[in-house]
Amino acid sequence: MNIDKFTITSFDQIIGFDRSNGSLDMILDELSDFTLSHEEEKVDITGKGGRAISSLKKNKKVTGKGTNGMLSGGALAAMLGAEIEDGEYTIRYTDPVVVSGNKGVTKETAVGTAGNEIGMIYVRNAGSAYISGGKKLTQTSAEPTAGEFSYDPETKTLTFYEGDVADGTEVIAFYDAKVTGKKISNDSDKYSKTLSLFIDVTCQDGCDNLFHGQFIIDRADFTGTFDIAGGSDPATQGFEFTSLPNLCTGRSDLWDFVIFD
After folding, report:
1. How many CB atoms are closer than 10 A to CB 16?
2. For residue 60, how many C-alpha atoms fall within 13 Å in the half-sphere facing its CB?
3. With the C-alpha atoms ordered 25, 28, 29, 34, is the resulting torsion angle positive or negative?
4. 22-26, 241-245, 248-252: lowest mean pLDDT where?
5. Distance between CA atoms of 210 and 260, rounded to whole angstroms?
6. Each residue of 98-143: pLDDT tens digit?
7. Phi, psi angle pair for 97, to nearest 5°
8. CA distance 188 to 37
């Protein structure tokens, strides 16, 4: 390798580790862009006639900013000061149901107060609207009368008053359901994390030799200011951090760069 003539052809991945226990917190391996920015203040010392005779340099600063092509749970947790949890959680489920023979079946099991697990069902009208001009049905724990429905969570069966909802009509129910999955919480009392980062890059020298490099940042203080946006384009993960010296070890390095075969 020729370290005097080389370029970084790609930023391959960024991995972050918890500084207290060394556990892996995040992997960003779909980097669409990344910039490591460097700042340094320079104050001129002036002499006779106001001419600059020397300078005082201070306040070196390194910040990293980039975009990952896909959302990363670990990066979200780092920027929120959160942990990724596994468990069973309650979500609000949207369930369109087609009625047949005065009955229907929900896809999930509605949970809540017995006899009021769903509370209200909305009937699609002739103009395909649920709310504007649509009919609302109220849940009852007894045998339903006109304008009511009952629900059996054991079989997930909805029962309507005879003739109240025509066969083939679509109704929509919004209810709480239990799901297993992962959770990230944005706690207002917790703030973004400081991680140990390792940034892997691919390099190429003037003779077209490829080799690897790695930026090592002992203390990367992530910002908690970011957007989660979607629409016509897929959601991406923007991130930003500031490199800090390690006061615990007395080292003032803002990063190390190691290149290797």
Report:
1. 27
2. 8
3. negative
4. 248-252
5. 10
6. 999 999 999 999 999 999 999 999 998 777 777 767 789 999 999 9
7. -130, 135
8. 29
pLDDT of residue 230: 80
Question: CA nearest 230: which of 58, 70, 108?
Answer: 70
* Rounded distance between C-alpha atoms, residue 98 and residue 104, angstroms: 6
Burial class (CB in 10 A: 0-12, 13-18, 19+), 116: middle
Look up residue 156 and give its two tokens: 């997930």
The first and second tokens of residue 31, run together, are 């980097």
Phi and psi angles of residue 134, each rounded to the nearest 5 degrees, phi first: -75, 160
- Unique residue bearing structure tokens 């993960």: 237
CA distance 129 to 174: 16
Kindly report, residue by residue over 131-166, the tens digit of the pLDDT: 767 789 999 999 999 999 999 999 999 999 999 999
